[in-house]
Every structure is written in structure tokens, then in C-alpha cells.
TrEMBL record, chains A, B:
Catalytic activity: tRNA(Pro) + L-proline + ATP = L-prolyl-tRNA(Pro) + AMP + diphosphate
Protein name: Proline--tRNA ligase
Summary of the function given for this chain in its UniProt record: Catalyzes the attachment of proline to tRNA(Pro) in a two-step reaction: proline is first activated by ATP to form Pro-AMP and then transferred to the acceptor end of tRNA(Pro). As ProRS can inadvertently accommodate and process non-cognate amino acids such as alanine and cysteine, to avoid such errors it has two additional distinct editing activities against alanine. One activity is designated as 'pretransfer' editing and involves the tRNA(Pro)-independent hydrolysis of activated Ala-AMP.
Subunit structure: Homodimer.
Cross-referenced SUPFAM superfamilies: Class II aaRS ABD-related, Class II aaRS and biotin synthetases, YbaK/ProRS associated domain
Subcellular location: Cytoplasm
Domain of life per record: Bacteria
CDD domains documented for this protein: ProRS-INS, ProRS_anticodon_short, ProRS_core_prok
Domain notes: Consists of three domains: the N-terminal catalytic domain, the editing domain and the C-terminal anticodon-binding domain.
Keyword ATP-binding: yes
Family: Belongs to the class-II aminoacyl-tRNA synthetase family. ProS type 1 subfamily.
Organism lineage: Bacteria, Pseudomonadati, Pseudomonadota, Betaproteobacteria, Burkholderiales
Length: 581, 581
């Protein structure tokens, strides 16, 4: 490719609303252009990257036995009503009415359509397993689109869906996909982690996120440097601390804490570590009668250490809370605690509540909690002595760095990641409401067991940039660079030698299948180099009159601090060696 | 590819709503699946065809210097308001409101977005010419979607847009595209015609449609078998007939034609050819005052031979009608003709009208027209004698087979076609309202001269099938077949010889870059052959125990009536020879 036949458009300044490096650099490098909030044109330079991402994903999906199809962008609402998502999806689902006032959605994913296909096409267990995928435009009307392609509204996703005869087979299909994802992300040349994620009602180890490591990532990734344990924050288990509960050393006391309604304020006032405080969360569950009306309600008190964060996914798995819960009303809190939030605690209740202690709280001694009286806290609180041992102890909190690793092989560390893939066993979540069945060996209809597998095709370039950039611009991994090699001739319009050498090398590399661009725009060297450093082409060769006289061209990798002189006749072989490495 | 790893799903019966061969056969061959009216999933077998179409289009577009980008499917309404199309497009434009009640459209084409990009990116004449294209999902909310992919609502289109400094350069860009289109359609292996189309306000020879010839086509194509003249019906010029007007032989007479309000009825009643009758069309034009109100109106009478059809595009180019016209009201007709439609004519008017005679009518003698009196026609009408020679003579009608060719090289023929491509010089239709300018050599802003170039990517397979099918199914041209070659082993599960020969040939052809499928499903021969004849793979090799014993495999092209025996060792070379041919 020659630059004069391509579309290159770089900017000195990024737009003011570009907050993260990938957004700034993709705008400056002319890879994307904003059309509306969260809606971007993929400009020629950016589209080349996206096409390379697509090609690698497609190749590995095919290798893993998945078969490509393309489902419509605009989908009839009827199917979404069958699955319950037309109502359930919320305002992120873009809804449309056609000229006949029929309802449609712009697909955010395609579970409904693929399940509809499966229930028509798959009749017998003999046709299973099956895996169908597409690489197609999606739309989610995000509340807060931002960061360019990182959290856009319109985006391209690879979404695959597996169909199996039973859960065991579904897990095998899941494993094939998880393995394919590792091959895909290895080929991208990115540092990533596959982290365990919550798998909802299915349970077990059947949901993983693929996270590109980057300080700017929106997600916290928990991992153990001494083992291969890795999970996302929702999923990472907080073990009970090692060792027994310390012996009480303090007497129970009601301590004035006027105007100090948070654990932080109380710890500061009393001059104690925040980790000696315990915070209270009051929830409620309702029992419904046959008529769907609330028959009775139960109030719950959850206790977590003052310096820990409650984990909503974990709370939703506590026996008794796993069928749904809500925050308690002010009236309920008043009725049970005789006090309002800020000074709540488990002592001196007006009416009994169901108490759940976090594993950490259950082994604390001499702790501090609200006194159920405005402007007072209890200090020196101890289980067994001041209140009964907790009946229910559960993991209720987010892990923190330094927690024991759940696999017992060291302590946890936390880093930031960008989710670019997700593999998930869905079970019968869609096949049941949509009645997608097959006949088993006995001729009996069974629901299809499904899995779904996504890769954010247009998010991936952004994640790659967050991980690979410097003050001059992007540094692409070879596999997904818009061009692998750029040839920068100096004074091509003045020197026949330079022009001939550049054209010859261009032709030689093209013939060898190298994705090379010859910059024949006639820019001055400074501007030309700045452009390619911004755009982030990994391999650069400078062709100059002086170099040709010396019989040498200058090679420089985007990460190198200096150029390497390479004899003219050896440059093509040298480059091929670099690319094979 | 092996069939066991692919998704094959054929049907014995087509759905009842499939009216044309391509729709029926694509459904039966499992290439598409209906999701809603005019909305289809491209199933794996169909997607392979579409991808091949895309690849050929992409290669030739790139070769022609166009650069690919991808514009959003969901586009903000603001841009469409700038161009005037948000109001002007009509109900085919799918309109959406997002969660913030902002208006969007699902793109039917992308002139607005690409013009917006151009006005930001193109600053100087030095950046011109430019051609940007995309291959992307489009949506048109057709009033009557039908014929499967032929007239769907969601479809894939390649749309390219050129930008030039002046009309001359725009015409050069147009020619480059028209040439690229010929290469593309040649590669598809289809019989097609590039036909001149109407180019609206631009004028000149700057609009062509590419039509795949098929008896089921929706469009009439006019061509001259003795020359390369070809045009669509809207554009094809009807010349004045050769020779002078015949001498009058009949006297003018008022003839009773009770209840006969059409030319057909009158000709039948009087026992004369329909070609001796003349029909009247009454139009009106309005002159507006400074306040936008109608100041005065002019009534027009257009005359066309009874057996000819009025051509609205041609009417809209008649001087005086070219700024817009409407049908005359009943009141206007009554005021000028003293009669209502069915018996109107140019004789005995109550008030003068502006008369336009079709070229053919202008040289008629002894013709028949309405008497401006219910139940009466005038016969033996002659120009100059019974009414003044027509002041305005114009081409007002569709050509018919046998008309003189406009290039003077013979007579015209008419066949049916399916429009699969269109190249068009747009001029400043979008750049003016959207203020897309560049600076010329003098530093003066000038409007960009644009062209647009479409190919219906998903319509093309349907058109190919309309042209290439028989009672057994589809017959794909090699270039866009879902698979080029299918290997049909008989008894692969029973015979190790068959299995080994099939696997070896499969491997050998794959290594040679042939797109080959090995049918390892274990179907019985009859069902297997029927499937592949339905799906339309052009080249088939049957591998049987008997053949192997004889040292021969059976090759058959989808169009062949019998198989050719080829020595086992020569089959791969034989196939490669067939594909190179």
C-alpha cells in the first residue's frame, strides 16, 4: 500500500472530551471519528486494525468448530417478549417502531434470534453439539457512553452460542471456547488474564472474563502472584482469616460519638484503626401469598468490617437472601432498631432480626459498632459475651490486596483490567422460556443447554492501546497493527535513488506477504516520523540518500530508542526475521 | 471443510410466501432464514456466498483506489435534517429515538455521514480526488418487502462516495468506478448489462445501472442488439419516427362512443388499431408569489399515442414542467375542457391550454381523440387542418420493442433485469446544503463535486440464482459458490478405501487453495446428491468403492447431464484445470 492511495489524517490535539489514552490516540491517529455520543465511524486506519482483529477471531472460532452466520441488526420485538428481555432489558435496549407501528429492537446481543434458529433447526440429539457465531454490529444505549470505543453505544461484537444435550456437554463446549479465547488473545500479543466470574444460577466454574491488563481499566482483577488463581472482584472469594478469634481484652462500653455517623469518622474520633469498626447493612425479604401480595417480611442485619466493601453478588447468594431482597424501609429500621442509619448495630434491638456476619467480622474481638442510639457507638464488643455467636456467617465482602488466596497458595493482589471477552454457560435460561428442545435417545424432548461467548471486537483495539502507548503515541502489537511495516523515504521526490530503493523494498516486502506501507506523501522527515509514531506502526525503515550511499538503511522498532543500520540488500530478510520472532 | 463441522440444512418444500426462484431456493438450500418481514438471517451456507461477493467487491474497489471505512448503522437525525432527507425520505427511513428522546435513523445509505467526514477532512484541492466506501448493513422500511433478499428491508450494501474539485474530475472518478463495476460483475460470472439511467439535474451521461439479466427481473432494460446501446426504461430515448407525416385521408368527424372512456375501448368499438388513438393527460403548474402563495396556474395537455405509456421522468424534463407539476384538479379540467376525463382532447377547448405532443403523435395523421363531450370522440383528426401544428413536441413516452435505437444503429429490444449496482454523479446535491467545501488554488472555497456508487451485496446472490437455476436447484458461478467443489464419498463409514481416497483428495485440493467440502455426513447417495444439486455447488466428485477398484472417480459439473470418469491420481489436476478455465 502506498500512503498516497490511502487515507491518513492525524491531529495535533485530541478533542477535549477524550479522557483516556486510547480515545485520545485513536482520535489523533485518525482511526475513529465521532458521529454522535458513543457512535463512531471507523476510519480507514482504524478499520484495518478492526479487520485484523476480526480475522484472528474468525480463524480461531472456525478452528474450534464454531460456524459463522449473520443475524439481523434489527430484530422483531416478539422474540424478545418470549424471553422476557423486551421488558427486562431496561433503557439500554434501543427500541424502534416500523411504518406499521410494529416493535423492533436494535440487537445488543442475539440470544433470542439464535435460540429461535436452534429450535427450528435442531431436532435430535444427533445434531448436537453445535456452536454458531457472528461478527456483527451491536447497539446498547449506554447511560454514560465514554472513552471512545471502550464504552460506545454502537460497536462490533463477536458473539457465539453453543447448544448441547446436557450440562456436562455444555461445560465441554465452554472449555473448547475458553481454550480458543486463550489462543486468540495470545495471538493479539496482549498481556491478559482469564479470570473466574460469577456464573449466576448455574454455579460452578463456568464463567470467565478475559481481561486486558491496563492501569486505566474499569474492572478490578484479583489474582494470586504465587498461583494461577484469578477472578473478578464480584467472584473472588474472601476466606476466613487464618487463626482463631483473639481473646476479648476490652469491656463493653457505650461511647459518645456525637455527629459521627460513619465508621471512618468514629475511628478517627476514637483514634483507632478503621479495621476495628463494623458497619451495618439492613435488608428485608418478603414472603408473598398465593395472591402475590406480601404476607410477611423479614428484616436482616449484615455486618462487614468498617474498611471492607459489601459485595452485592455475594450478598445475593446468602441462603434466605438468594430469592431476592430489598433495602429495609425507614419504618422497618425504626421498628427493629429504634434508631436511624449511622448508629445502627446488633446490640439492644427492639425486635429480633436475622443477623449475617461476614467471615472476617465473625472472628473479630473488641470491635466497635453503632449503639442504636443517635450519637453513640458501642466499643469493646465481643461475640458470645455481649451478643450470641453469629448463627449465619458468610462471605459478604470484596477481597482486598493481601487477603489469603482461595487456593491456599499465597495472598491476593489486585490490578486493573479491561474486559474484552466473556465465556459463559447459560444453561436453559433462554431455551426454557422459548421452548427450544431436542429429542433425546428415548425420543423425549429436552431443553437445549446453551453457552454464550463474546469478544468486543471494536473495544479490543482500545484495550490494546491502553496497554501499549507512550508520550509519542500508540505502539501496536504486530498482529493487529494497521500496517506492520512503514517505509519512510526522505526526499523521494528529489532523489531517484531513494525512490527506486523505496519502491524496490516495498515490492519485495509485499511479495513476501508483509503488510507494508510506503509513505510517498512527500512529508518532511519530522512530520512523517511523528505521524507514524502517533499511529504506532511497529516497524519502520528510513530510506535516505546518505544511507543509500553508505549502503545501509535504518531500521527502528517503535519501542527502540535508536535505529539499527542494515545493509540495503539484507533489509527485507531482516524485517522478515523481526516479524517471525 | 468437512460437512460434519459445517451447518447444512435443506428443506423439501419452500415456504408458501416464496414467489420467485431465488427466494424459494435460498430458503430450501438453508442459505437464509426469515426472522421477520423482509428481515433474514444469513445462515452459514448463505453467508459464504455473501463473503465471496464482498471479497471480490472489496478487491476491485481497492484496486480502483477507493479506501474502505465503516460508517455507523445508527446515525443522528441532525445530519439528515441538514441535507433535508430526514423529512424528505418518507416512511422508508427507519426513525428511532434514544433514551434521551434524541432522533436517529438506521442508515439506508450514508451520503450525509460521508459528506460530514469530507467537510471535516478535505480542506484543499491537493487532497482531491478521494473515494471512500463501506460494506455495511442498511435498512429500508419498504412498503412491500418481497422476494427474499431481492427486496428485503435489512440488507448489506457496498456504498462508495467520490469527492472531486469539479464536474470534469467527478466524471473521471465516475468512469473509474464504472470500469471497476464491469470488472466486478465480469468476475461474478453473470450475464449483465450496464444501462444508461437518468441522471437528474446533472444531465449528460453520468448515471448507469448494472442489471443482471433475468426473466423474473423487476426492471425493463432497453438495448440495441446491433450496437452497445443500453438504457433503463426511464432513460431510453424514443426518437421521432422516420419519414414525414402521412397526408390526411379522413374528414374530421364527431363519433358516438357511448360508455367507451379508454383508448382500448374506443379502438375496439371502431374496429381500428389502438395505434390510431391518442390519449390526453392534463397537468398543471403553479406560479408562486413572493409570499409563497399560488399567484396563477397554467393547465397543460399532454398527448401520447393510445398504445404508448407516459414516462414521468421524461415529462418532468419538458421545458415549463421541469420546475415541478401536478395533476390538474377536476375544477381546472372542467373550466378548460368543459368535460371530465375519458373523453378529453385538444379540440373545442373552452379555455386555451399549453399543449405538448409526443414526438410520435406529432407525425400522426387521421387520429382519434376525445371530443370534450361525454360519450363522443373525434375521428380523422389532423394537425394543421383541424388544430394548429403543435408548438411543443417532446419525448414523453416509454420506448417499445421495435423503436429506432437512439444511436441510429438498428431497432430496440427489451429484456428484464435485476438492478445490482448503480453509479451516479451527484454533483453538489449534498455538499451545498451541508456546506462541504475545499479551497481551490486561489484559496477560494468551492463545493465538493460528489459521486455515489452502490452494489447490493445481499441482492446479488439472489440475482445470480434468478439467472442460474433449474428444476433441481441453484447453479452457482464458480466465483460465488458457497463451496467450489463438493466431494461425495459413497459408503465412507463402511469402506476404508473410500474414506482414505476422499480424505486424500480433500487434503490435496485444500492444499491447492481450492474451496472444497467433503460430505462426511454419511447420507445415502440420493439424498446427498439432491442436497448438493439444490445448494448448487458447481463441481462434484463422487468417490465410490467401485470407482476406486476401477481406478476412476466420477466428476460432474452441475450443468453436465452425465459424469466424466477421471483416473484417481489425476482428479486434483483435472479439477484445477476446470477451475482455471
Amino acid at each position: 500500500m502506498k500512503a498516497s492511495r490511502f487515507f491518513i489524517s492525524t491531529l495535533k490535539e485530541a478533542p477535549a472530551d477524550a479522557e483516556v489514552a486510547s480515545h485520545r490516540l485513536m482520535m489523533r491517529a485518525g482511526m475513529i471519528k465521532k458521529l454522535g455520543t458513543g457512535i463512531y465511524t471507523y476510519m480507514p486506519m482504524g478499520l484495518r486494525v478492526i479487520r485484523k482483529v476480526e480475522a484472528i477471531v474468525r480463524e480461531e472460532m472456525n478452528r474450534a468448530g464454531a460456524v459463522e452466520l449473520t443475524m439481523p441488526v434489527v430484530q422483531p420485538a416478539e422474540l424478545w417478549e418470549e424471553s422476557g428481555r423486551f421488558q427486562g432489558y431496561g433503557p439500554e435496549l434501543l427500541r424502534i417502531k416500523d411504518r406499521h407501528e410494529r416493535s423492533f429492537v436494535v440487537q445488543p446481543t442475539s440470544e433470542e434470534v439464535v435460540t429461535d434458529i436452534a429450535r427450528q433447526e435442531i431436532r435430535s440429539y444427533k445434531q448436537l453439539p453445535r456452536n454458531l457465531y457472528q461478527i456483527q454490529t451491536k447497539f446498547r444505549d449506554e447511560r454514560r457512553p465514554r472513552f471512545g470505543l471502550m464504552r460506545g453505544r454502537e460497536f462490533i461484537m463477536k458473539d457465539a452460542y453453543s447448544f448441547d444435550r446436557d450440562l456436562e456437554s455444555a461445560k465441554a463446549s465452554y472449555k473448547i471456547m475458553a481454550d480458543a479465547y486463550r489462543r486468540i488473545f495470545d495471538r493479539f500479543g496482549l498481556r491478559y488474564r482469564a479470570v473466574a466470574a460469577d456464573s449466576g444460577a448455574i454455579g460452578g466454574d463456568v464463567s470467565q472474563e478475559f481481561q486486558v491488563i491496563a492501569a486505566t481499566g474499569e474492572d478490578a482483577i484479583v489474582y494470586c502472584p504465587e498461583s494461577d488463581y484469578a477472578a473478578n472482584m464480584e467472584k473472588a472469594e474472601a476466606l476466613a482469616p487464618a487463626g482463631a478469634r483473639p481473646v476479648p481484652t476490652q469491656a463493653l462500653a457505650k461511647t459518645p460519638t456525637p455527629g459521627k455517623a460513619t465508621c471512618e469518622e468514629v475511628a478517627e474520633l476514637l483514634g483507632v484503626p478503621l479495621s476495628t469498626t463494623v458497619k451495618s447493612l439492613v435488608l428485608a425479604t418478603d414472603k408473598l401469598g398465593a395472591d402475590g401480595q406480601v404476607e410477611s417480611s423479614q428484616v436482616w442485619l449484615l455486618l462487614v468490617r468498617g474498611d471492607h466493601d459489601m459485595n452485592e453478588i455475594k450478598v445475593s447468594k446468602v441462603p434466605g437472601l438468594d430469592q431476592g431482597f430489598r433495602f429495609a424501609t425507614n419504618a422497618e429500621i425504626d421498628e427493629h432498631f429504634g434508631c436511624q442509619p449511622g448508629y445502627l448495630g446488633p446490640l439492644g434491638l427492639k425486635r429480633p432480626v436475622k443477623l449475617v456476619a461476614d467471615r472476617e467480622v465473625a472472628v473479630m474481638a473488641d470491635w466497635i459498632t453503632g449503639a442504636n442510639e443517635i450519637d453513640f457507638h458501642m466499643t469493646g464488643v465481643n461475640w458470645g459475651r455481649d451478643l450470641p455467636e453469629p448463627e449465619l456467617v458468610a462471605d459478604l465482602r470484596n477481597v482486598v490486596a493481601g487477603d489469603l488466596s482461595p487456593d491456599g497458595k499465597g495472598v491476593l493482589a489486585i490490578e486493573r483490567g479491561i474486559e474484552i471477552g466473556h465465556v459463559f454457560v447459560l444453561g436453559t435460561k433462554y431455551s426454557k422460556p422459548m421452548n427450544a428442545t431436542f429429542l433425546d435417545e428415548a425420543g423425549k424432548p429436552q431443553f437445549l443447554e446453551m453457552g454464550c461467548y463474546g469478544i468486543g471486537i471494536t473495544r479490543l483495539p482500545a484495550a490494546a492501546i491502553e496497554q501499549n502507548n507512550d508520550e509519542r503515541g500508540i505502539i501496536w502489537p504486530d498482529a493487529i497493527a494497521p500496517f506492520t511495516v512503514v517505509l519512510c523515504p526522505i526526499g523521494m521526490d528529489r532523489s531517484a535513488d531513494v525512490r527506486e530503493a523505496a519502491e524496490a523494498l516495498h515490492g519485495e516486502l509485499l511479495a513476501a506477504g508483509v503488510d507494508v506501507l510506503l509513505d510517498d506523501r512527500g512529508e518532511r522527515p519530522g512530520a512523517m516520523f511523528a505521524d507514524w509514531e502517533l499511529i504506532g506502526v511497529p516497524h519502520r525503515v528510513v530510506i535516505s540518500d546518505r544511507g543509500i550511499k553508505e549502503g545501509q538503511l535504518e531500521y527502528q522498532h517503535r519501542r527502540d530508542t535508536a535505529a539499527t543500520k542494515v545493509p540495503v540488500a539484507e533489509v527485507a530478510a531482516f524485517i522478515k526475521g523481526k516479524l517471525a520472532a
